[in-house]
Write a structure and sequence with these properties.
Blueprint lengths: L1 H16 L3 E2 L5 E2 L6 E3 L18 H6 L1 E2 L9 H6 L2 H13 L3 E2 L2 H13 L2 H6 L1 H15 L4 H17 L2 E3 L2 E3 L6 E2 L10 H7 L5 E2 L16 H11 L9 E6 L5 H7 L11 E6 L1 H13 L2 H19 L4 E5 L5 E5 L1 H7 L4 E3 L5 E2 L9 H7 L6 E2 L5 H7 L7 H14 L5 E4 H14 L4 H9 L4 E4 L9 E7 L12 H8 L14 H4 L4 H7 L11 H11 L2 H21 L4 H11 L7 E2 L5 E2 L7 E3 L4 H7 L5 E3 L7 H18 L4 H4 L1 E9 L3 H21 L1 H9 L3 H4 L2 E14 L4 E2 L4 E2 L2 E4 L2 E5 L4 H12 L6 H15 L4 H11 L20 H4 L39 H5 L41 E5 L5 E5 L33 H4 L20 H23 L4 E3 L12 E5 L2 E10 L6 E4 L1 H10 L3 E9 L3 E8 L1 H6 L3 E5 L15
């Protein structure tokens, strides 16, 4: 039996080597050459109802199967063969190693070995793909053998199989293999790897292209489940590593805060590592590329909870089963590399140095803080990486430094609510370390101030950081609030308009003022910047009152010393610059003192302001509608500030220009002044020694250069030389000092002359005490007092001593000789009452003059009532003056013969038109236009002279008769114009003309269009009804010899248009209530026929004409 067995084994071994088995491809082979499969019916080999072996033609072609012809299936064949023989053949083939064909056996015996064959993989890529498709499909079936062997198959695949990747066939046990996008990878890590030139293996999509996938509704999901089992992942793989305690790094113990000696050396260490992710993160960190690092954080955020969260903790495990957790090596390495991008800068950071963007952080730090970018969603990732979710005082101090550092590169944005919480947090937390905290804060600007006002504390706005000395708590002038109201948005200039912290952080006064040292109010010099911002945000008319408050604050500071000399110099320098237009004017313009804005001054005299307010190249400061108290503060406080800032008052820039007619003998007046000068010298030396020293330093030059000019008729007009402006009004006076010349008339009284002399000696200021002193001495001399009596009174009563011998006595440089001035008394001789130096005493002079105390002299009531302060000099030296409606002081105007009521009878006569009358074509541009309301003839002054005359012509030249012939007329002079007088004359002429026409045609037919107020029409009276209207223009004069009148271009055009319907009524107002009316009907026609002629008036100064205009 045993011998037969051995023989049988030998025979089987021989058969295994003998190539006698017919194969399906027509060849013969042996079992030793490879596995041969025996199938009775191929169609019965199937995976399920949809797939069978024929679905894998490449595998079928690779399988060596017994030729089916060896087992005929037809009935004829089976009948000829014995069934027992077929069974014997089958048993024989199986006994020598031929395998019965089954899917499971194909997987185990053929496909698994083939999948690890590198040679096969290199030769036949398609077959390798089909092998894996076959295996995957089989594992999805309900194969009974797979229940037992499935884990083994997966293990073999994980450890030995070759998978097709983008880098060729790779074994998952040797390199990490990842899903591609086609296999449902939610992320694209390959772009990160490509950026750092790191090889990244992804499953090839060819597995999804096999035809067998068409039968699956979601083939990629089947494949994904299959690949996941053999170790394919979406991102970097993290693997479990068993270690000994000796293998654990000191860093791990440090992170766990454990002592290595406390852990048993025999303990088992279970840790997690990921060389792949560590390598990728290190490369990205070195590259510094923020976008890729942001994407890496996004990938981890998406996959963390599912793939990595359970791999952040390792364990020490002892023999007793106790486990001690620690931070895994995978997580430690991830946290130790600077790879996380910040929302605040362009650098990469450790995760622990950045904040997680959450409400608790954002409410204090706002949007402009070092948040991890992008914002992660996984809370476990936030905790595992160590992002900060709470703010500390140290964090704020560090972030403030970062904010300041970043300011030059980009504007800082924050909301007031957020910054308020930040400062409140600092205030509360600094208690334990106040000094250190304040040192850190003061190391740079830290107070956030927005560039523009905000409507809500939650609005995020641009702003900057300022030092405590650059801001203040409250602006009492209200200028900042004014800017907020009129200009809530940002100016183009990046400078905060509001530095008043009480309006920005109203609840933090204790922190800013008491802890940080912020001033309660702005530094006085900083108001110039506030005004500059105000001028860009509002109109002058809107902010004039605020500017007044600023000037008032400066004035108080100047008085108290808070506004230093350096501050005044700084403010004056700013105001002189073109780029500081911070002064509001009456023309509603912002200006500075730069010459391009013309003359800018403030009004201390309403009358002068009225005279020059419409002059070119001059403007007045405007402080809004001031109350009585405000006006007093302007005079008492702000006037001194104006002087220090170089802003002149109108009275300081206006000078009086003398206008005189006819020269007279000046010897008497020269002698008077020459006689009184030594007394003036003694007075100034005694009571004004400082001024005397100034005069002496100049060698008394102004005294030596003084000239006396006596004229027959003296007027003056106000002029501003610096801007070439002159008043159209002139005022008659008795004496006037202009530069070094004292103009006077023979009738001028002593006191007036001495007031003018005081202006010379006291640098333009009229000194009333001085004038009274000289007036008293002169009056004593005029009253007959001897020289000794005068000297006794001066020395003993007034305590004014004689001049020291070394002092030169004042005298005029030249005095009229006796031949020129008649008899002149010596300077050292007191004149007698009958002397020529003093004229006969006028009626009404006080016989008790001089008084015992010269301070009781006229005009000293005011001085006694006001602590011996002098009163501003009056204008009692004027024989003609005007009353300013805005002035409190009243002087007499010149009166007119027609001042009596019109109830007096007037004799109005018809007068025939002159053969030749000149019509002056003139627009009255130099006349002041005023409207009259209720006409009251008694309100008009009397004109005692003739028509206006040329300012520089003698009176006798003006009054000479002129020829009525045009060709022989020398000139038509248009001299100094008295606007008030002219209006009164015109108004009276219109009234008389109206009365004239009422007497002619009846009251109902005559309408005086200017009866209520001046209308500006080119006619004054309308006569008749609508169908037959005649327009009358009235021209009036007080000179019966005048044969010309002005007519405007509007009036002449109207005359041209109306023709016969237009007439000129020329009213000559004469003495004794007599008026002559001459009617010129259709003056245009009269000019055409030669009965009237037009004249064009040229400038008086021919030198001003261009050369081409001169003959």
């Amino acid at each position: 039996m045993s011998a037969n067995s051995e023989i049988r084994e030998d025979i089987l071994q021989c058969l295994q080597k003998l190539p006698f088995i017919p194969l399906s491809d027509g060849t013969y082979s042996s079992v030793d050459e490879g596995t041969i499969w025996l199938q009775s019916n191929t169609s019965s080999i199937s995976f399920n109802s949809k797939h069978n072996l024929e679905a894998f033609p490449n595998i079928c072609a690779k399988l060596r199967t017994v030729n089916p012809t060896l087992f005929p299936t037809s009935s004829t064949d089976t009948s000829s063969l014995n069934a027992t023989i077929l069974d014997n053949v089958t048993r024989l083939l199986q006994s020598i190693g031929v395998q019965q064909l089954s899917v499971h056996d194909v997987v185990k015996l053929h496909i698994l070995p083939a999948l690890s064959d590198e040679t096969m993989a290199n030769k036949n890529k398609v077959l390798m793909v089909e092998y894996l498709c076959f295996l995957m499909l089989h594992l999805t079936t309900t194969c009974s053998d797979c229940v037992i062997e499935k884990e083994h198959i997966i293990s073999v695949l994980r450890g030995k199989s070759l998978l097709l990747t983008n880098c060729g066939f790779k074994c998952p046990a040797e390199v990490p293999i990842h899903f591609c996008a086609g296999l449902g990878n939610p992320v694209s890590p390959k772009k990160l790897a490509d950026f750092v030139n790191m090889r990244w293996h992804e499953i090839d999509i060819s597995y999804l292209k096999h035809p067998v996938n068409e039968s699956f509704s979601s083939a990629w999901m089947k494949w994904r489940e299959f690949f996941e089992k053999i170790g394919v992942t979406d991102f970097a793989q993290v693997v479990q590593v068993d270690k000994s305690v000796a293998d654990v790094s000191d860093i791990t113990f440090k992170h766990a805060m454990w002592d290595r000696g406390l852990i048993s050396p025999d303990s088992r260490v279970i840790d997690w590592e990921s060389p792949e992710i560590l390598h990728l993160v290190s490369l990205l960190s070195k590259s510094g590329n923020q976008e890729n690092c942001k994407y890496l954080l996004e990938v981890l955020d998406r996959l963390w909870d599912a793939c990595y969260a359970d791999k952040t903790i390792g364990y020490f495990s002892n023999s007793d089963g106790d486990r001690c957790p620690f931070k895994s090596a995978f997580l430690c390495k991830l946290c130790d590399v600077q790879w996380v991008a910040s929302s605040m800068d362009g650098e990469l950071h450790h995760a622990k140095d950045l904040f997680y963007d959450c409400e608790s952080v954002r409410m204090i730090l706002g949007a402009f803080a070092p948040y991890a970018s992008p914002k992660v969603k996984s809370e476990r990732l936030v905790n595992d990486l160590g992002f900060k979710t709470r703010v500390t005082l140290g964090d704020i101090l560090d972030i403030l430094k970062a904010w300041r550092k970043n300011l030059p590169n980009s504007p800082f944005k924050a909301s007031i609510r957020q910054m308020s919480k930040l400062y409140s947090f600092v205030w509360n937390e600094m208690v334990a370390s106040k000094q250190k905290t304040m040192e850190d804060l003061m190391s740079g600007p830290f107070i956030f101030v927005p560039y523009s006002s905000v409507s809500s504390d939650d609005d995020v706005v641009c702003g900057t950081f300022l030092y405590p000395n650059e801001v203040y708590w409250h602006d009492s002038t209200g200028s900042v609030q004014e800017m907020k109201e009129f200009h809530p948005q940002c100016s183009s200039s990046l400078s905060p308009i509001n530095k008043s912290l009480c309006t920005i952080y109203p609840g933090l006064r204790g922190f800013f003022v008491e802890e940080c040292g912020v001033q309660e109010s702005p530094p006085l010099r900083s108001y110039i910047q506030i005004l500059l911002q105000l001028s860009t945000a509002t109109l002058p008319s809107q902010a004039a009152d605020k500017t007044f408050q600023v000037f008032l604050k400066w004035a108080d500071g100047l008085k108290s010393g808070l506004l230093s000399l350096e501050d005044v110099i700084y403010l004056k320098d700013c105001l002189s610059k073109l780029e500081f237009p911070v002064l509001p004017t009456v023309q509603d313009k912002w200006v500075s003192l730069h010459p391009s804005f013309g003359l800018v001054c403030w009004s201390d005299d309403k009358k002068l302001k009225k005279e020059f307010k419409h002059s070119d190249n001059i403007d007045f400061l405007y402080f809004g509608e001031l109350t009585k108290d405000d006006k007093e503060q302007v005079q008492n406080k702000i006037s001194n500030l104006m002087k220090n800032l170089g802003i002149p008052a109108i009275s300081e820039v206006v000078t009086r220009e003398a206008i005189y007619y006819g020269l007279a003998d000046c010897s008497l007046k020269e002698s008077l002044i020459n006689w009184i000068l030594p007394y003036a010298q003694r007075y100034i030396l005694k009571l004004h020694s400082a001024r005397y020293a100034q005069l002496k330093q100049s060698n008394f030059d102004i005294v030596m250069r003084l000239k006396i000019i006596v004229v027959e008729k003296l007027f003056y007009r106000n002029v501003i030389k610096s801007c070439g402006s002159a008043s159209t009004n002139r005022v008659e006076c008795s004496c006037l000092l202009q530069e070094n010349v004292l103009y006077t008339t023979q009738e001028s009284d002593y006191h007036s002359m001495f007031m003018e002399l005081s202006s010379l000696l006291f640098d333009g200021t009229s000194e009333l005490h001085f004038s009274n002193f000289l007036h008293m001495i002169t009056t004593m001399a005029e009253s007959g007092s001897s020289k000794e009596q005068i000297e006794f009174f001066i020395v003993n009563s007034q305590k004014v001593h004689k001049l020291p011998d070394e002092e030169p006595v004042w005298e005029l440089s030249s005095v009229s000789t006796l031949e020129e001035a008649g008899k002149v008394l010596p300077l050292d001789q007191a004149p007698s009452v009958n002397g020529q130096l003093f004229t006969r005493r006028k009626a009404g002079v006080n016989k008790n003059w001089p008084p015992a105390d010269w301070k009781t002299a006229p005009d000293f009531n005011y001085a006694r009532a006001n602590g011996l302060k002098t009163q501003a000099p009056g204008i009692n030296n004027f024989t003609e003056a005007t009353k300013d409606d805005n002035s409190e002081s009243t002087t007499d105007r010149p009166v007119c013969a027609e001042q009596a009521s019109l109830s007096f009878d007037w004799t109005i006569k018809d007068d025939q038109p002159a053969n030749s009358v000149a019509l002056m074509l003139h627009e009255n541009n130099n006349l002041e236009v005023q409207s009259y309301h209720d006409f009251d003839p008694s309100a008009f002054a009397v004109h005692t002279g003739s028509d206006p005359v040329c300012l520089d012509e003698p009176l006798d030249e003006v009054n000479k008769n002129s020829s009525s012939v045009f060709s022989r007329r020398d000139r038509l002079q248009y001299g100094a114009f008295d606007a008030v007088q002219a209006k009164a004359t015109g108004r009276l002429g219109e009234l008389l003309a109206c009365k004239y026409f009422v007497e002619k045609v009846g009251k109902d037919a005559v309408k005086w269009v200017n009866e209520v107020k001046e209308t500006g029409y080119p006619y004054d009276i309308v006569i008749g009804e609508e169908s037959n209207i005649e327009y009358i223009e009235v021209k009036a004069t007080r000179s019966p010899r005048k044969d010309w009148f002005n007519i405007t271009t509007n009036e002449w055009q109207f005359a041209f248009d109306k023709g016969e319907s237009f007439s000129i009524a020329f009213v000559a107002i004469m003495e004794n209530n007599i008026a002559k009316v001459t009617i010129f009907k259709n003056p245009v026609k009269l000019c055409h026929i030669g009965q009237l002629q037009l004249a064009v008036m040229m400038p008086r100064q021919q030198k001003q004409l261009p050369p081409s205009c001169h003959s």
